[in-house]
Amino acid sequence: MIVRYAVGVGLGAFILLLLVGQRGEFSGALRHLDHLNYAWASGAALAEVLSIVGYGFLQQRVLQWSGAEISLRSLTLVSLANNAIAYSVPASRRCRAPIGTGSFDVTVRAGPAPGGRS
Predict the structure, then answer these.
(1) Mean per-residue pLDDT for 101-112?
(2) SS3 content of the chain, % helix, strand, coil (to 5)
């Protein structure tokens, strides 16, 4: 527990040190937010939060139908992690799509494949 806490504090200090070293770039990026409409930004943030919680709720319902009981909090955190991975993995749209949607193109066929091949 103490090691975990120490690693977290150390990592936070390292990130803070990196941010202080890039102060010019950070202040330059903040200048782009001068014309930000806080009402629209708040609405967009709220919509994103509701979207992630809603997706967690949908997953919870589907899993309940199959007999699994998982908390909405856990599924919401999984949805949040899914979004973080989908937006941070440097890959093309084609590679990122299966990660972001949580589904892969898997076709199950009953019987022979088209064209007579099995």
Answers:
(1) 49
(2) 70, 0, 30
| 3 burial level (CB within 10 Å; 0-12, 13-18, 19+) | exposed
Q: Could you write out the three-class secondary structure of 42-94?
A: HHHHHHHHHHHHHHHHHHHHHHHHCCCCCCHHHHHHHHHHHHHHHHHCCCCHH
Asked if the model's pLDDT at residue 79 lies above 70, the reply is: yes
The two tokens of residue 117 are: 């091949």
CA dist 12 and 39 (Å) reads: 31
pLDDT > 70: percent of the chain: 72
Q: Tens digits of per-residue pLDDT, 2-41? A: 888 888 888 888 888 877 777 777 777 778 888 888 999 9
Closest by CA position to 86, among listed 74, 103, 71: 103
Measured between alpha carbons, how far is 105 from 95 in angstroms, rounded to an integer? 12
The SS3 call for residue 112 is coil
